[in-house]
Amino acid sequence: MLEGLPQQWLKRGPVSLLLLPLSWIYRALHEIRLWLYRHGYLRIDKLPVPVIVVGNLVAGGAGKTPLVMALVHHLHLRGWQPGVISRGHGRHSSACLEVRHDSNASDCGDEPLLIKRHCKVPVFVAASRVQAGRALLQAHPQVNLIVCDDGLQHHSLARDLNIAVFDERGLGNGRLLPAGPLREPWPRPLIEGDVQRGIDLIAGYGAPAGLGGYACERRLAASARSADGSCIALGDLQGLRLQAWAGIAKPEQFFNMLRQRGVQLEASRAWPDHHAYTEADLPADPDLTILITEKDAVKLMPLARPQGPRLLSVALEIEPEAAFFKALDLAMQSWPRPAHPIPSPHGHSTS
């Protein structure tokens, strides 16, 4: 039953009803936690620079990391010097550390490593986002804005802006975990004392119109990239033995997007989200080509061997509508400005 919960979260069926008492307990614990923050029993820390938190209100991936990368790109164009902090989900440690271009995903997490390689900005991970932010600013004093990848429910970190990301599921059945997908009640209330800041901006991938917010277009890149950086057009893969692998929240989405690009797959394989690949996972078949996501590539590419399959990563390109960035700029207009802002064309992708 647990494996089928994401499907049950889309409707208010008997399984959701059975789990509803646990959702009431979950909500009570959530309210108690907020009360502890509001009355000073739990501490809220503010960093000396503005903080933008990008996160999900629903369980499971909703595309926040690609949006983080598009956001960092936009901030660069506007003249900011951003840094990124994250918990580093799926890593083997909770220690605070800097993510470097040659870091191992098992140490820092696959998504922070992907952000580092794409955006080339300072990235720190820690169980405490406050600790990660302080360490980043100490090591990189030129950074004048922090973007937090995930962390809407990490109330110990004060923030200046919250961005919630939704996908086509929207709010699901509208119930809290485990009877539904919501991590917290919706709409998100503004608690006295700014203990829980309301949602400032909503970005959605095919989310129901009732949520409001701004649309994001996502598509696969037209070419795939090998470990040495060389590219091959997806249309030139015809005639090869092709498989697609994905260790992400919704692997079928990646497979379907490949098929929509005209890629003919021999097979597809879904792995658990944040799967820690080993050499044993790769077959000894040099005639096979495996198409993988960029998130999987940071873990699989280092394992590639001459006697094994050829690995090609396919980037997911994200482009929020121009109105999203205009709304973002408007929300940030009262923040301390960098010395020489550069006008933004309001067009971005993470290819």
Tell me the strand percentage band. Answer: 15-25%
Helical proportion?
25-40%
Give the overall form. globular
| Strand segment count | 13
Radius of gyration: 21 Å
Characterize the biggest β-sheet.
13 strands, mixed
SSE sequence, one letter per element: HHEHEEHHEHEEEEEEHEEHEH
**What is the CA–CA distance across the termini?**
37 Å
Summarize the structure.
The chain is globular and about 65 Å long. The protein has helices at about 5-10, 15-40, 65-75, 105-110, 110-120, 130-140, 250-260, 295-300, 320-330, and strands spanning about 50-55, 80-85, 95-100, 125, 145-150, 160-165, 200-205, 215-225, 230-235, 240-245, 265-270, 290-295, 310-320. Helix 8 links the parallel strand 12 and strand 13 (about 310-320).
Protein architecture, described:
With 351 residues, this protein is of the alpha/beta class. The chain has two domains: 8-212 and 321-332, no CATH class; 220-317. It contains nine helices and 13 strands. Strands 1, 2, 3, 4, 5, 6, 7, 8, 9, 10, 11, 12 and 13 form a 13-stranded mixed beta sheet that branches. α7 (251-260) links the parallel β10 and β11. The longest helix has 25 residues, at 14-38. The chain is globular and about 65 Å long. The relative contact order is 0.16. Mean pLDDT is 90; it is low at 341-351.
